[in-house]
Amino acid sequence: GGSQPGNVRKFSLLPAVDLCSAPMRPRWLVRDFLEMGTLASIYGPSAGMKSFVAIDLGLCVASGRDWHGHPVQSAGPVVYVCGEGFAGIGKRLRVWFIHHGLDAASMPFYVSNSPVAFLDPDSVAEAVAAVQALAKDIGAPRLVIVDTLARNFGPGDENSTGDMSRFVSALDDIRVQFDCAVIVVHHTGLAAADRARGASAFRAALDWEYRLEPKGDIRLMACTKSKDHEPPADVAFEPESVDCGWMDEDGEPVSSIVLRETDAPAHGNKEKPLRGANKIAYEALVDLCTAGDILKQSARPAGIEAWRAESYKRSISPSPEQESKKKAFNRAVTALRDSGHVSTEEDAYWPSSLPRDTGTYRDKTGHCPGQSRDRRDTLLKECPGCPAGDRSEEMSEEVAR
Q1: pTM of this prediction?
Q2: Are 197 and 188 in contact (CB under 8 A)?
Q3: Helix, strand or coil for residue 53?
Q4: N or C terminus: which one in the chain shows less Cβ crowding within 10 Å?
């Protein structure tokens, strides 16, 4: 568990032999991405969905849910210091709980109702007292998220090395006192869009730094600093709109965004492995087009509706809502076509890596088009994956008549 409030390590001296006797294992908060007791930053341009990534990660820590396949190894309370957008935070949280089927009432995720001016000792003392009170009730936080640096900086200049060092020192006091990780959401500079803005003292103090870069509709998160570990692989997210079940003042439904992992945009000649909805849809198509062919040497093209049905069966969207499934499938089809993984002709689809079997394809009508009725019964035996398979007995009776 985390440290109790006020449990600061006392200064002591350790002999080298003690440090060499056994490995010091990482205390992962999120495996490969964030350790306990470290300082991290997620930076990117305005409207780059930095806050959505930070909230998503924080809610996974609070719930113990894997963060996009990466285990949360020390779940516990999370404090989110909300410096901007407080009015919209409720719907962001609500759609996350709806999307993942979790109950907000059981989630130790706490949001501040105002920023903290970290260069103002009185403001920091007030915030620390609130966290201490929370820690006495439910335990020390595992993670504190500061969103954004600018809105929580206080009376100072981000470009001043002295002021930035004081800001980092205030974060360190919280990090050490509660033995928690701290993530700061930050903006890129106007002149240098490839790095975080402000004094370099901030980056120098970081254990982890992540850049969030827009790539069309996709947001690519890349590790730009990993102090003690190999940088983790890039992670790509695509936004998915979810209805939060509220109505606005005009009676219109209110929605917000959740992030879903997807394939990173290809660059160079290195092909990225498929992930998320794209992987599910592709594997569904391969199995559909090669049913009955153990060696998978060729592919009988599949109709779009048969492909859709198979993808739905494999939970292409975590949400049970039909509209979410539809959007996830349609995006996957477009992505797989654009990336060259899937070929298509006249509403028939097959994996590009396999030669096309030009005999028949499976479509939504439940029969093999272009074939006479007396041939269909034979074709069904050769095509066990066809949606018409469940009508084989009926067709055989028709042929007999």
Answers
A1: 0.66
A2: yes
A3: helix
A4: C
